[in-house]
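Repro:
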Amino acid sequence: MPTPTVTSCLATVLASGPSRSVQEVVPADLWNKQVGLLMRDYPYDSVMATRVLGQAYAYLLTAMEHRGEALGLAPSTLVDIGVHTIILDTLAYAELCDRFNDGYFLHHVPKVDFKNDGSVMKTAHIVAADGWDVDHPLWADAADCGPCHPGNDSH
């Protein structure tokens, strides 16, 4: 199967109609807290922090939805920053896993070396196919490689 490109991912999103929004899933107080954490820890304004956090939730929820399918999902470097913000808020992350991953904890297993296998853009394509909004510039920073382990029950 050829690796999806930014253009093919965009075509999928445009053809799929209205997208799901992570802000409909994440409570507003938690969302605002995690946007604030990103702004505290990175040189992001509220717009960039919101973009990164939204893509991180879309990625994690997609990974949970496809648990056990061995899809080799991987976030981009920028999306992974948002993932770290979410998973470091351990009580909220445990609740997310309970709610969307049948109570199973979705482990984060980072790799030292980036894998150059196209898995990041493939992941963006799957996120879009699952109906989530996809902010393509945040995925294109590492279009050919990802920092995470492609396990069945980890990301």
